[in-house]
TrEMBL record:
Keyword Transcription regulation on entry: yes
Coiled-coil residue spans: none
Keyword annotations of the record: DNA-binding, Transcription, Transcription regulation
SUPFAM superfamilies documented for this protein: lambda repressor-like DNA-binding domains, Periplasmic binding protein-like I
Domain HTH lacI-type per the UniProt entry, residue ranges: 6-60
Top-rank lineage group of the source organism: Bacteria
Family matches, as PROSITE patterns: HTH_LACI_2 (PS50932)
Annotated protein name in UniProt: Transcriptional regulator, LacI family
Length: 334
Protein backbone atom coordinates (compact mmCIF):
# COMPACT_ATOMS: atom_id res chain seq x y z
CA UNK A 1 0.00 0.00 0.00
CA UNK A 2 1.33 3.45 -0.98
CA UNK A 3 2.26 5.52 2.06
CA UNK A 4 1.17 9.19 1.92
CA UNK A 5 3.96 11.70 1.51
CA UNK A 6 4.93 13.38 4.82
CA UNK A 7 3.70 16.96 5.19
CA UNK A 8 4.65 19.94 7.31
CA UNK A 9 1.73 19.07 9.57
CA UNK A 10 2.90 15.48 10.14
CA UNK A 11 6.42 16.70 10.89
CA UNK A 12 4.99 19.25 13.34
CA UNK A 13 2.96 16.56 15.12
CA UNK A 14 5.96 14.24 15.40
CA UNK A 15 8.21 17.04 16.69
CA UNK A 16 5.59 18.46 19.04
CA UNK A 17 5.86 21.97 17.61
CA UNK A 18 3.72 24.26 15.44
CA UNK A 19 3.57 24.11 11.67
CA UNK A 20 5.08 27.61 11.55
CA UNK A 21 8.12 26.39 13.51
CA UNK A 22 8.68 23.54 11.05
CA UNK A 23 8.38 26.02 8.17
CA UNK A 24 11.00 28.30 9.73
CA UNK A 25 13.44 25.41 10.20
CA UNK A 26 12.93 24.16 6.63
CA UNK A 27 13.47 27.66 5.22
CA UNK A 28 16.67 28.23 7.16
CA UNK A 29 15.43 30.78 9.68
CA UNK A 30 17.63 31.36 12.74
CA UNK A 31 14.64 32.44 14.85
CA UNK A 32 14.01 28.97 16.26
CA UNK A 33 15.05 27.63 19.68
CA UNK A 34 17.81 25.02 19.37
CA UNK A 35 15.72 22.37 21.17
CA UNK A 36 12.82 22.88 18.74
CA UNK A 37 15.18 22.86 15.75
CA UNK A 38 16.66 19.52 16.82
CA UNK A 39 13.19 18.05 17.32
CA UNK A 40 12.11 19.17 13.85
CA UNK A 41 15.27 17.83 12.19
CA UNK A 42 14.82 14.48 13.95
CA UNK A 43 11.18 14.30 12.80
CA UNK A 44 12.17 15.16 9.22
CA UNK A 45 14.70 12.34 9.21
CA UNK A 46 12.34 9.81 10.79
CA UNK A 47 9.47 10.58 8.41
CA UNK A 48 11.60 11.11 5.29
CA UNK A 49 10.08 14.52 4.69
CA UNK A 50 11.29 16.32 1.51
CA UNK A 51 10.44 20.05 1.20
CA UNK A 52 8.32 21.07 -1.78
CA UNK A 53 10.76 23.36 -3.60
CA UNK A 54 8.06 25.18 -5.57
CA UNK A 55 6.08 25.98 -2.43
CA UNK A 56 9.25 26.86 -0.56
CA UNK A 57 10.23 29.31 -3.32
CA UNK A 58 6.86 31.07 -2.98
CA UNK A 59 7.55 31.61 0.73
CA UNK A 60 11.25 32.50 0.58
CA UNK A 61 11.29 34.14 -2.87
CA UNK A 62 14.43 32.03 -3.50
CA UNK A 63 15.07 29.36 -6.11
CA UNK A 64 18.50 28.25 -4.81
CA UNK A 65 19.66 28.47 -8.46
CA UNK A 66 22.32 30.80 -9.88
CA UNK A 67 23.14 31.55 -13.51
CA UNK A 68 26.61 31.71 -15.04
CA UNK A 69 26.33 33.68 -18.29
CA UNK A 70 29.07 33.42 -20.93
CA UNK A 71 28.77 36.08 -23.69
CA UNK A 72 30.58 33.85 -26.21
CA UNK A 73 29.81 31.63 -29.16
CA UNK A 74 29.18 28.05 -27.96
CA UNK A 75 31.92 26.82 -30.32
CA UNK A 76 34.53 28.92 -28.55
CA UNK A 77 33.33 27.90 -25.09
CA UNK A 78 33.42 24.17 -25.81
CA UNK A 79 36.69 24.21 -27.76
CA UNK A 80 38.53 25.98 -24.93
CA UNK A 81 40.33 23.49 -22.69
CA UNK A 82 41.24 25.74 -19.79
CA UNK A 83 39.53 29.06 -19.03
CA UNK A 84 35.85 28.22 -19.45
CA UNK A 85 36.03 24.70 -17.96
CA UNK A 86 38.11 26.05 -15.07
CA UNK A 87 35.68 28.85 -14.25
CA UNK A 88 32.63 26.56 -14.57
CA UNK A 89 34.31 23.97 -12.35
CA UNK A 90 35.16 26.54 -9.68
CA UNK A 91 31.65 28.05 -9.71
CA UNK A 92 30.05 24.61 -9.60
CA UNK A 93 32.19 23.42 -6.68
CA UNK A 94 31.36 26.50 -4.62
CA UNK A 95 27.63 26.33 -5.33
CA UNK A 96 27.48 22.60 -4.69
CA UNK A 97 29.10 23.04 -1.29
CA UNK A 98 26.36 25.60 -0.51
CA UNK A 99 23.64 23.21 -1.79
CA UNK A 100 22.79 25.51 -4.71
CA UNK A 101 22.15 24.80 -8.39
CA UNK A 102 24.14 26.13 -11.38
CA UNK A 103 22.39 27.23 -14.59
CA UNK A 104 24.78 27.74 -17.54
CA UNK A 105 23.67 30.20 -20.25
CA UNK A 106 25.19 31.66 -23.45
CA UNK A 107 24.63 35.28 -24.44
CA UNK A 108 26.41 36.27 -27.65
CA UNK A 109 23.54 38.01 -29.47
CA UNK A 110 21.01 40.73 -28.52
CA UNK A 111 18.24 38.11 -28.75
CA UNK A 112 20.01 35.80 -26.31
CA UNK A 113 20.65 38.70 -23.92
CA UNK A 114 16.95 39.60 -24.02
CA UNK A 115 16.06 35.99 -23.26
CA UNK A 116 18.40 35.94 -20.26
CA UNK A 117 16.97 39.23 -18.98
CA UNK A 118 13.44 37.80 -19.15
CA UNK A 119 14.58 34.58 -17.46
CA UNK A 120 16.21 36.50 -14.61
CA UNK A 121 13.34 38.99 -14.28
CA UNK A 122 10.95 36.05 -13.83
CA UNK A 123 13.12 35.15 -10.80
CA UNK A 124 14.07 31.72 -12.09
CA UNK A 125 17.50 32.36 -10.50
CA UNK A 126 18.57 34.20 -7.36
CA UNK A 127 21.57 35.88 -8.95
CA UNK A 128 23.78 36.01 -12.05
CA UNK A 129 27.52 35.72 -12.74
CA UNK A 130 28.80 37.08 -16.08
CA UNK A 131 32.20 36.01 -17.42
CA UNK A 132 34.23 36.76 -20.59
CA UNK A 133 32.54 40.03 -21.53
CA UNK A 134 33.21 42.01 -24.70
CA UNK A 135 33.06 45.81 -24.90
CA UNK A 136 30.62 47.72 -22.73
CA UNK A 137 28.37 44.68 -22.38
CA UNK A 138 24.89 46.03 -21.43
CA UNK A 139 23.71 42.82 -19.72
CA UNK A 140 25.22 43.29 -16.22
CA UNK A 141 23.88 46.84 -15.89
CA UNK A 142 20.45 45.80 -17.19
CA UNK A 143 20.24 42.99 -14.63
CA UNK A 144 21.40 45.30 -11.82
CA UNK A 145 18.67 47.82 -12.74
CA UNK A 146 16.12 45.03 -12.32
CA UNK A 147 17.36 44.47 -8.78
CA UNK A 148 19.02 41.15 -9.63
CA UNK A 149 22.33 40.51 -7.81
CA UNK A 150 25.18 40.44 -10.34
CA UNK A 151 28.91 39.70 -10.07
CA UNK A 152 31.21 39.80 -13.11
CA UNK A 153 34.52 38.26 -14.07
CA UNK A 154 36.60 41.40 -14.78
CA UNK A 155 35.32 44.95 -14.67
CA UNK A 156 32.74 46.09 -17.17
CA UNK A 157 33.94 48.60 -19.79
CA UNK A 158 31.32 51.17 -18.78
CA UNK A 159 31.19 54.03 -16.25
CA UNK A 160 29.37 51.98 -13.57
CA UNK A 161 30.79 48.49 -13.19
CA UNK A 162 29.00 45.91 -11.00
CA UNK A 163 31.15 44.06 -8.43
CA UNK A 164 33.74 41.89 -10.13
CA UNK A 165 36.40 39.24 -9.55
CA UNK A 166 39.44 39.38 -11.80
CA UNK A 167 43.21 39.09 -11.98
CA UNK A 168 45.90 41.75 -12.25
CA UNK A 169 46.37 41.37 -16.00
CA UNK A 170 48.61 44.42 -16.40
CA UNK A 171 50.98 43.31 -13.63
CA UNK A 172 51.09 39.78 -15.04
CA UNK A 173 51.98 41.06 -18.52
CA UNK A 174 54.68 43.30 -17.03
CA UNK A 175 56.14 40.25 -15.23
CA UNK A 176 56.40 38.45 -18.56
CA UNK A 177 58.03 41.33 -20.40
CA UNK A 178 60.46 42.12 -17.58
CA UNK A 179 61.56 38.47 -17.67
CA UNK A 180 62.28 38.82 -21.39
CA UNK A 181 64.21 42.04 -20.78
CA UNK A 182 66.31 40.44 -18.02
CA UNK A 183 67.18 37.60 -20.37
CA UNK A 184 68.74 40.14 -22.75
CA UNK A 185 65.98 40.46 -25.35
CA UNK A 186 65.76 43.90 -26.95
CA UNK A 187 63.23 43.55 -29.80
CA UNK A 188 60.26 42.35 -27.80
CA UNK A 189 56.93 42.12 -29.63
CA UNK A 190 53.47 41.20 -28.41
CA UNK A 191 50.52 39.29 -29.76
CA UNK A 192 47.81 41.16 -27.87
CA UNK A 193 44.34 39.90 -27.07
CA UNK A 194 41.05 41.41 -28.34
CA UNK A 195 40.86 45.09 -27.55
CA UNK A 196 37.17 44.91 -26.66
CA UNK A 197 37.99 42.73 -23.62
CA UNK A 198 39.52 43.85 -20.32
CA UNK A 199 42.09 41.03 -20.42
CA UNK A 200 43.26 42.08 -23.88
CA UNK A 201 43.40 45.78 -23.00
CA UNK A 202 45.17 45.38 -19.66
CA UNK A 203 47.73 42.84 -20.86
CA UNK A 204 48.70 45.18 -23.70
CA UNK A 205 48.95 48.02 -21.20
CA UNK A 206 51.30 45.97 -18.99
CA UNK A 207 53.46 45.15 -22.02
CA UNK A 208 53.74 48.82 -22.99
CA UNK A 209 54.52 49.90 -19.42
CA UNK A 210 57.38 47.40 -19.06
CA UNK A 211 58.87 48.32 -22.44
CA UNK A 212 58.59 52.04 -21.70
CA UNK A 213 60.50 51.57 -18.45
CA UNK A 214 63.32 49.88 -20.38
CA UNK A 215 63.13 52.43 -23.23
CA UNK A 216 62.43 49.74 -25.81
CA UNK A 217 60.21 50.04 -28.88
CA UNK A 218 56.82 48.34 -28.92
CA UNK A 219 55.64 46.10 -31.77
CA UNK A 220 51.99 45.05 -31.53
CA UNK A 221 49.73 42.69 -33.46
CA UNK A 222 46.27 41.72 -32.21
CA UNK A 223 44.73 38.22 -32.05
CA UNK A 224 41.45 36.84 -30.71
CA UNK A 225 42.77 34.33 -28.11
CA UNK A 226 42.75 31.43 -30.62
CA UNK A 227 45.73 29.40 -31.89
CA UNK A 228 45.21 30.42 -35.49
CA UNK A 229 45.13 34.13 -34.66
CA UNK A 230 48.44 33.73 -32.82
CA UNK A 231 50.07 32.21 -35.91
CA UNK A 232 48.71 34.97 -38.16
CA UNK A 233 49.80 37.72 -35.76
CA UNK A 234 53.40 36.51 -35.36
CA UNK A 235 53.81 36.33 -39.15
CA UNK A 236 52.62 39.95 -39.32
CA UNK A 237 55.19 40.90 -36.66
CA UNK A 238 57.97 39.05 -38.46
CA UNK A 239 57.16 40.99 -41.63
CA UNK A 240 57.49 44.26 -39.71
CA UNK A 241 60.51 43.30 -37.55
CA UNK A 242 62.33 40.20 -38.88
CA UNK A 243 64.95 40.55 -36.12
CA UNK A 244 62.46 40.23 -33.25
CA UNK A 245 63.95 38.18 -30.42
CA UNK A 246 61.15 38.07 -27.84
CA UNK A 247 57.37 37.69 -27.90
CA UNK A 248 54.85 38.20 -25.11
CA UNK A 249 51.64 36.45 -26.14
CA UNK A 250 48.46 37.44 -24.31
CA UNK A 251 47.13 33.85 -24.08
CA UNK A 252 48.65 30.39 -24.12
CA UNK A 253 46.36 29.25 -26.93
CA UNK A 254 47.71 32.04 -29.13
CA UNK A 255 51.24 31.20 -27.94
CA UNK A 256 50.82 27.63 -29.23
CA UNK A 257 50.06 29.13 -32.66
CA UNK A 258 53.08 31.42 -32.32
CA UNK A 259 55.43 28.52 -31.54
CA UNK A 260 54.17 26.62 -34.59
CA UNK A 261 54.62 29.59 -36.92
CA UNK A 262 58.11 30.35 -35.60
CA UNK A 263 59.17 26.76 -36.31
CA UNK A 264 57.74 27.01 -39.81
CA UNK A 265 59.80 30.15 -40.49
CA UNK A 266 63.01 28.52 -39.26
CA UNK A 267 63.23 30.36 -35.90
CA UNK A 268 64.44 28.37 -32.89
CA UNK A 269 62.81 28.86 -29.49
CA UNK A 270 64.37 30.09 -27.23
CA UNK A 271 67.73 30.39 -29.06
CA UNK A 272 66.47 32.88 -31.67
CA UNK A 273 63.17 34.01 -30.12
CA UNK A 274 61.98 33.72 -26.52
CA UNK A 275 58.22 33.27 -26.03
CA UNK A 276 56.10 33.90 -22.93
CA UNK A 277 52.36 33.21 -22.78
CA UNK A 278 49.56 33.98 -20.31
CA UNK A 279 47.10 31.64 -18.48
CA UNK A 280 49.12 28.46 -17.80
CA UNK A 281 46.74 26.07 -19.50
CA UNK A 282 47.54 22.35 -19.25
CA UNK A 283 48.98 22.04 -22.81
CA UNK A 284 51.55 24.76 -21.97
CA UNK A 285 53.62 22.10 -20.20
CA UNK A 286 53.77 19.93 -23.29
CA UNK A 287 54.49 22.38 -26.11
CA UNK A 288 57.83 22.15 -27.93
CA UNK A 289 59.58 23.63 -26.02
CA UNK A 290 57.46 23.84 -22.81
CA UNK A 291 55.95 27.30 -22.52
CA UNK A 292 57.00 29.93 -20.01
CA UNK A 293 53.77 31.65 -19.02
CA UNK A 294 51.91 33.81 -16.53
CA UNK A 295 49.63 31.71 -14.35
CA UNK A 296 46.23 33.04 -13.34
CA UNK A 297 44.13 31.17 -10.75
CA UNK A 298 41.26 30.23 -13.05
CA UNK A 299 39.54 27.81 -10.66
CA UNK A 300 39.95 30.39 -7.89
CA UNK A 301 38.22 32.98 -10.05
CA UNK A 302 35.19 30.70 -10.43
CA UNK A 303 35.03 29.88 -6.72
CA UNK A 304 35.28 33.53 -5.71
CA UNK A 305 32.68 34.57 -8.29
CA UNK A 306 30.20 32.18 -6.72
CA UNK A 307 31.24 33.07 -3.18
CA UNK A 308 30.78 36.80 -3.80
CA UNK A 309 27.37 36.24 -5.38
CA UNK A 310 26.21 34.03 -2.50
CA UNK A 311 27.22 36.75 -0.04
CA UNK A 312 25.49 39.42 -2.13
CA UNK A 313 22.21 37.48 -2.30
CA UNK A 314 22.40 36.92 1.45
CA UNK A 315 22.39 40.69 1.94
CA UNK A 316 26.06 40.90 2.95
CA UNK A 317 28.42 43.61 1.74
CA UNK A 318 31.16 42.53 -0.68
CA UNK A 319 34.28 44.08 -2.16
CA UNK A 320 33.43 46.02 -5.35
CA UNK A 321 36.66 44.77 -6.94
CA UNK A 322 38.39 41.54 -5.93
CA UNK A 323 41.67 41.36 -7.89
CA UNK A 324 43.73 38.16 -7.66
CA UNK A 325 47.51 38.02 -8.23
CA UNK A 326 49.33 36.25 -11.06
CA UNK A 327 52.71 34.50 -11.08
CA UNK A 328 55.38 33.79 -13.67
CA UNK A 329 55.99 30.09 -14.42
CA UNK A 330 59.39 29.69 -16.06
CA UNK A 331 59.85 26.84 -18.54
CA UNK A 332 62.10 26.33 -21.55
CA UNK A 333 60.55 28.73 -24.11
CA UNK A 334 62.06 31.71 -22.26
Amino acid sequence: MHRPRPTLESVARRAGVSRATVSRVVNGSTKVAEESREAVLDAIQELGYVPNQAARSLVTQRTDSFALVLPEEPGRVFSDDRFFPGVVRGVSQELESADKQLVLMMARSPASRDRIERFALARHVDGVMVASMHGADPLPAALARMGIPVVCNERVLSPASPPYVGVDNAAGAALAVEHLIRSGRTRITTVAGPQDMVAGIDRLSGYRTALSGARLQAYVAVGDFTQESGAVAIRELLDREPRLDGVFVASDLMAIGVLRALRQTGRRVPEDVSVVGFDDIEPARYTEPPLTTVRQPIGGIGRRLARQLLRLTAGESIEPALVLPTELVIRESA
